[in-house]
C-alpha cells in the first residue's frame, strides 16, 4: 500500500515551467506504476501521463506530448511531472496516483493523492 502526496503546484505565466513532485509512503513504491491526472473546474478528471514501475514505459496524453515529462526515482519513492511551455488550458488540480495495473485510465490506479493546484495565467 502507498499513499501519494503531491507538491509543487502554483501560479505561473503562460510559457513558463513547473515541476510537480509526488512522494509516496510505503516500502512497495517501486512495485507500482504511477500516473498523473488533472481536473479542471466543471470537467472530468483526465489522464496526463504515466510511468511503469521500472521507468521503461511512459505514456502521455496527446495534449501534453512534447511539453510534459514524467519520471520517477524509486530510491526516493518519488515521481515527478516536469511541465514546460505551460498554457492556460493546463490550469487544473493535478493528482498523483499509484496502481499495480497503471495505464492511461483511472481504473488502473488504486491510491490517489489529494491534488495540487496549477494555475497558468495568460
Helix fraction by DSSP (H/I, runs of at least 4):
under 10%
Major sheet: 7 strands, mixed
What are the low-pLDDT stretches, counting only 5+ consecutive residues below 50?
none
Taken from the alpha-carbon principal axes, the silhouette is: globular
Using only C-alpha atoms, the radius of gyration works out to 13 Å
Count of DSSP helices?
0
Q: Averaging pLDDT over every residue, what do you get?
A: 96
Please identify the structural class as seen in this structure.
Answer: mainly beta
**Hey, roughly how much beta strand do the residues contain?**
over 45%
Order of helices and strands: EEEEEEEEEEE
Kindly state the number of beta strands.
11
Please report the distance between the alpha carbons of the first and last residues: 40 Å
Task: Please tag this protein with its features.
122 residues, 7-stranded mixed beta sheet, mainly beta, globular, 4-stranded antiparallel beta sheet, 0% helix
Can you put this structure into words, describing what you see?
Strand 5 and strand 6 form a beta hairpin. The N and C termini lie far apart (40 Å). It is built from no helices and 11 strands. It has 122 residues and is mainly β. Helix content is 0%, strand content 50%. Strands 2, 4, 5, 6, 9, 10 and 11 form a 7-stranded mixed beta sheet that branches. The mean pLDDT is 96.
